[in-house]
Design goal:
about 70 residues, mainly alpha, about 70% helix
Length: about 70
Amino acid sequence: MEYTNSRLREIVEDFVHDERARFIMIQKYANNVTLEKLAEETDLSVSQVKRIIKKHYYEVFRHFDEK
């Protein structure tokens, strides 16, 4: 799936309402930050970070097909 960082940020801002989840999604997919680093930066476990990503992944990436 092709996407631009600016489009990703726009979609995340529109559809992910939790501030920490927005931060994680943008850092992971726009800035390619590792799960371990995200866990450290958010004071969460890697498992918790994975759950947040899994929860919001479909909501974010389904909008790339929309115009």
